[in-house]
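User: I want to check something. If I give you two sequences, will you return the structure for each one separately, not as a complex?

Assistant: Yes, each is folded on its own. Here is the first sequence with its structure:
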Amino acid sequence: MSALDRRLATATALAEAAGRLALSLQPPPGAPVASLKGAQDWLTEADGAVEGFIARSLAEAFPEDGFQGEETGTGREGALRWVVDPIDGTSNFARGSKRFCVSIGLLDGRTPLLGAIAAPALGEIFAARQGCGATLNGAPIHAAATTDLARAQIECGWSARRPNAGYYALAQGVMDAGAMLRAGGSGALGLADVAAGRIDGYVELHINLWDVAAALVLLAEAGATVSPFTAGAGLTDGNVILAAAPGIAPILSGIAGIPVT
């Protein structure tokens, strides 16, 4: 087993185990059981517990690798860097909803190498390694073959870091093109759904590295078209993201004003 194969196997197993831990700590359905870091930016006790579990496990397995978590920041430096979102979709998680996930990605500088995304309440695990394809529960996945935006379903993620007017314009443009609009509350799972062909595109005007680190390699390996997230200050400050089925990517890129590679 190669060094990257071993890291992917470890990341996948860790994402599943961390997902089980998160599920055991999830509050029942109802009003959110969490604190606010900012506008609709939720934090639960489970976020810290899950991130701590993943950080300790990765440090033990790969002490030479760096680590960055959403809640704790950059804990250590290394030639390779693990980037972790312990619970993506925290607003859903805090309400007892099933749509949340654990995301673990590995980068070499600006290059995503592998990723694992576990959605424990949905019983799903996405995994991918550069050059080796992408899978959902072990079966290969591919971006949709959609070519007509009027037949497409597009998720538009909302971010408090950008003016609402930009989000309104984006949603209006998508709907005016005839596409169905969706908002699922988890950027990582929205991007994974593009990789799996479940939706045709995901657009967000600002998203952070930990939300996309695992999904970027999933998308690339599944044949989706993706904007250059890691360009510029994407690794430190976040960036726009557009991921889409190749057949609709050019027109969606024009609507959103986000160049794609």
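And separately, the second sequence with its own structure:
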Amino acid sequence: MASAYRYGKNQLPGAPNLNKKAEIGVFGGSGFYSLFKTAEKLSLKTKYGKPSDTITVSEIHGKRVAFIPRHGAKHQFPPHMINYRANIEAFKRLGVERVIGPCAVGSLKPEIGPGQIVICDQFVNFTHSRKDTFYDGPLTTHVSTADPYCPEMRKVAFEAAERVGIEVRKKGTVVVIEGPRFSTRAESKFFSSQGWDLINMTQYPEVTLAREREMCYLNISIVTDYDVGLEGNPEIKPVTHEDVIRVFNENIGRLRDLIFEIVRVLPKERSCECSKALEKARIKA
């Protein structure tokens, strides 16, 4: 695989050089990199520490795209130990304005089965120990997350999916748990009873940190399992990590096709409100 790349190893002590800029950031893994004819690897440290791994920057349809493996290249960071602030800050320093966040999710509803793709529009946070803001004072900042996922990018994703022949669910609420353990049956039943659709361990605070940096964020959820099995169907067992990885890998080709098409058709200029997230978020003395 290494022969498919042309790597340039760079240390970036300050702001990146112009030729190291990127327009779009993707939290992805090695399944994406093998499609690139050329790629650069960048080592970057932020004031919040190092991102999960070396950043790979390449070009897709004439646009510079930066990739960070969310859990690290060797999956060494469990969900509650990911340095979400460093990951988002690294993208920001590279000039990224839009972030695509594919992730594996469990289903809380029988009608949403493994292999389906959901473009979420809402999340519910049940994490409790994560550094989840860039603003710890003295400048108090209250960023609105009423609609946390960029509406412009969601619309582009729907249209891109139709063009490449991939069926997606156009909305969904994902509840984010702390991890690294999976839910108990009682917890999963509670989440389901609230009408929520999916369960995941990484969407928060990734999406809200992107909003604090006035970046657009698109979620693409791949359903890998039913959270604790399917009530009334004893053949469908509670999720295991092995199940998650297997189903995610089975769908990596569809995910790549969708992401590449989204990148191709994203308009150059943003027309959403994400870039103005801080305008009314601060109290001026």
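Because they were folded independently, the notes below concern the second chain alone. Helices lie at 30-33, 84-93, 151-163, 185-193, 203-212, 241-250, 252-265. The first helix runs from residue 30 to 33.
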